[in-house]
Design goal:
420 residues; 34 strands; 49% strand; Pectate Lyase C-like; 21-stranded parallel β-sheet
């Protein structure tokens, strides 16, 4: 069954919140398609149900209002913590066979939320734009997403997810507007997407030490994507207490992202990040192409010595692990800070990292920057690979052009094969 949203049109000048609710309720018994024709539809939050497709026709704009009173509070997981936040703009919970498709636009009205966030006037944070929780067989295809209040697409504990041919645009200075963040989800395919955002572009997460039952994020395919302006292009962590495993990333282009491949964690977070393959990537104008940082310091204080201290700590359930990671066929030009950064924990080195057949060209005279968010690092410009606490490292066929100092700065904590 197909229903046209305009059948439920509100009075002139009113929001479309109740129209969406009525149309979706009409579809709920048997499922079907809610067609959104060309036009602008200002609305509060919208919730989808099982066996429902929200289809935006060309010219359709679903515009969420930046009115906190229109978004009821609900229990929500954000950055690993269970809290009460505004209901997501577009969501589904515990649903099967849910789809958001078409050639229209979903606009989160982010500017108002960002201004209130910066002013400190929001009591309960900002909503996700698209949030799907405990869903199976989820499809997001074709639509353009923009101006998200916070994270843009967040599948949490979902299975069998396809995100294909969508585009996302949030201003570079918009706070915490990550692009696509699968969390504790499995069998996820992100294909042919363009992501231009104010934080990390695509991030795999699995909860933190504060998450009641962190579950892995696993069996992930990312291919044929263009990643622009984000703090990181393809990112894992720092929420990774449930582990992240079995990931392939191929045929992607990174333009102006601060970091290219970025994997980040810290002590007490636990979790294993393993079985990752990155291949056939092109990067231009990045700060640092590869970052493996186990001393990630964002959100911590100087007195949190366990975050930044470089002497070994006892290995326990909160000790994170990075291992079995392959990078091959990467071309990076206009690199500003460093060719690469790998710094494992003293008690848990990065294990089994291979970097093959890569060409990295530094940007002459680039402004110095910090390759990774780690306490005690000085700004650098044109540095080579900075390597500490790595085991079974293999570097073959890697060329670094225009670097200052050694191409590979490694000390006795690094074992394996490096170019002479």
């Amino acid at each position: 069954m197909t229903i046209d949203l305009t059948q439920f049109a509100p009075e002139k000048g009113a929001h479309w919140t109740q129209a969406f609710a009525a149309a979706l309720e009409a579809l709920r018994p048997e499922g079907g398609v809610l067609r959104v024709p060309a036009g602008r539809y200002e609305t509060g939050p919208v919730r989808l149900f099982s066996h429902t497709e929200l289809r935006l026709e060309p010219g359709a704009v679903i515009a969420f209002v930046a009115e906190p009173e229109a978004f009821p509070l609900q229990e929500c997981q954000y950055e690993g913590r269970i809290t009460r936040r505004p209901q997501p703009c577009l969501s589904a919970f515990g649903a099967q066979d849910v789809a958001v498709t078409g050639q229209g636009v979903i606009d989160g009205g982010g500017a108002g939320w960002w201004a209130a966030h910066r002013a400190g006037t929001l009591q309960h944070g900002r909503p996700y734009l698209l949030h799907f929780e405990d869903c199976t067989r989820l499809r997001i295809q074709g639509v353009h997403l923009q101006n998200s209040p916070a994270w843009t697409v967040h599948p949490l504990r979902c299975a069998d997810v396809i995100i294909r041919d969508i585009s996302i645009s949030n201003p570079y200075d918009s706070p915490n507007t990550d692009g696509i963040n699968p969390e504790s989800s499995r069998d996820v395919r992100i294909l042919g997407c363009r992501v231009d955002v104010g934080d990390d572009c695509i991030t795999l997460k699995s909860g933190t030490e504060d998450t009641p039952a962190p579950a892995p994020c696993e069996n992930i395919v990312i291919a044929d994507c263009c990643l622009v302006h984000g703090h990181g292009g393809i990112v894992i962590g720092s929420e990774m207490s449930g582990g992240v495993r079995n990931v392939t990333v191929t045929n992607c282009v990174f333009t102006g992202t601060d970091r290219g491949i970025r994997i980040k964690t810290r002590r007490r977070r636990g979790g294993r990040v393993e079985n990752l393959r990155f291949s056939n990537l092109v990067m231009d104008g990045v700060l640092c192409p590869f970052v493996f940082n186990m001393y990630y310091c964002c959100g911590t204080r100087e007195e949190d010595r366990w975050v930044w201290e470089k002497t070994p700590y006892p290995v326990d359930g909160g000790t994170p692990f990075f291992g079995n990671i392959s990078i091959s066929g990467v071309t990076a030009t206009g690199v500003r800070a460093a060719a690469g950064f790998c710094w494992g924990l003293a008690e848990s080195p990065v294990r089994g990292l291979s970097i093959r057949d890569c060409r990295i060209e530094m940007e002459p005279g680039a402004e110095p920057g910090v390759p990774a968010m780690m306490g005690g690092l000085e700004t650098v410009s044109g540095a080579g690979f900075m390597l500490r606490n790595a085991r079974e490292l293999l570097v073959e066929g890697v060329t670094v052009i225009g670097h200052r100092g050694p191409a590979f700065d490694a000390d006795q904590t690094v074992t394996g094969k490096l170019p002479e």
